[in-house]
Amino acid sequence: MKKLFLILSVAMFSLGTVDAFAQDNANEGAATEQAAVAETTTVADVDAEATIAGESMHHVMMQKFLEGGWGWMLPILIFLIIGLAVAIERILYLSFSTINSKKFIAQIEEALKNGGIDAAMEVARNTRGPIASIYYQGLLRYNQGLDAVEKSIVSYGSVQTGQMESGLTWIGLFIALSPMVGFMGTVVGMIDAFDAIQAAGDISPTLVAGGIKVALLTTLMGLIAAVILQLFYNYIVSKIDSLVNEMEDTSITLTDILTAYNKK
Predict the structure, then answer these.
(1) pTM for the whole thing?
(2) What are φ and ψ of residue 141, in 5° steps?
């Protein structure tokens, strides 16, 4: 439910931004047309170049998005929005899963020394993150022997790793689909451009350039979406690898602690 709420929130915000820009772009277009009636072609070209030079990167990107057409740009935008929502949710989850493992291990050792297994379980229960969960499962099976503790640690470690990797397949899917849809839009746009040339019976540079430009914009949008999602994907994977290594290290420490406690 939290994932769905986050995805919907990001989607509504992003689409609202695009719609607002589209309205502003339409108003600017109407004003430009009225100004062009009163000015000469040379002055209008100079003003247009000055306006483009002064535009922000965000404004230019949104303008190119609208020029590419909603038919192909919208699916890519949806892939980007949903992918970012999943990535943000994963980053938040992994951030909350990270704890100070040295401090936590010291608390477990202190609890074992003063209150035994039950006190250590209480510390693990009240601590967030996969490391604390693994410790809790291991301590819970202490009465069954150290072999049962080790098996529990290994099994529940795999469960925790699977939970951390949840959602990565969707990000990978959107990374693959975004450029694919962009390339498809380019191919369809090129076909439309050649159809227009065939219908006109003449190869007009303006007609060809306009069609090719619109077609290539879909590929550009798809590649941009894929690059952004790939950066988030790699960061999440590196974060998971770091947590998994820490889980394995602390699991060995738990085994050593319980072995020493068992000898008392």
Answers:
(1) 0.72
(2) -105, 20
